[in-house]
Amino acid sequence: MPLLEVDNLSVRYGSIKAITDVSFHVEQGEIVAIVGPNGVGKSTALNALSGIIESNGGLITSGEVRFEGHNITGFKTHELVQQGISLVPEGRRIFPRMTVIENLEMGAFTIKDKSIVNNEIQRMLDLFPLLKDRTLQQAGTLSTGEQQMLALGRSLIIQPKLLLADEPSLGLSPNFVDMIFEKLVEINSEGTSILLVEQNARMALEACHRGYVFEMGKISFDGKKDSLVNDERVQKSYLGK
Ligand SMILES: Nc1ncnc2c1ncn2[C@@H]1O[C@H](COP(=O)(O)OP(=O)(O)OP(=O)(O)O)[C@@H](O)[C@H]1O
Ligand SMILES: [Mg+2]
Prior knowledge:
It is built from 9 helices and 10 strands.
């Protein structure tokens, strides 16, 4: 049984159909990439399974999302966190007025035991050493790359089984892009499965085990890393070859 299964998902915003009959899955232990150009429904697909689609004005009109075999369609964010699913939203959405530590504490809101929270915060600071000297800094004053590290740390603090990440490399300098992808691979090797939405197809397909290419609200093709990277259409459209 796959960890995450999405069957025939359709989402509309008002009268606009954003995605139609989209099906994909994530196996335990995988990094799965969703790539494709602007506006084809990548974030919509991710948000539809992460419980924030309604607050964005979207409506799931068909489909089912299952996690470990249970139907989780339409679950709210906190219910997903309880299942072990965590989202790093597009644009990071850190709390700019709060300190680095306070942001990490927000990610741990479901953990009641303060000593566990402190241990987990320490674990995140070890994973992202750049944040160590900045624990009391207001998050809004961090550089974009540091904010992305914080957003990742905030999502990982509950030790999710599945991490959903929307464009984690967007707007970052090449060094930070490399760092983010290295971290994702490291996190994955420690047991967290990852569903990664990226416009940076080159990096995402390099890091993934399998991928899906979205076009105009549908999946145009999918496959294992090697078959995608060697596919002529993918090379031409997304890898600039
Ligand atoms: N809140 C919204 N209200 C109305 N239409 C929306 C909303 N969010 C997205 N859309 C529309 O749905 C379609 C898919 O958008 P989505 O954000 O999922 O694309 P995307 O593939 O993530 O794009 P990008 O790569 O630019 O992030 C687009 O046509 C977009 O204009
Ligand atoms: Mg998007």
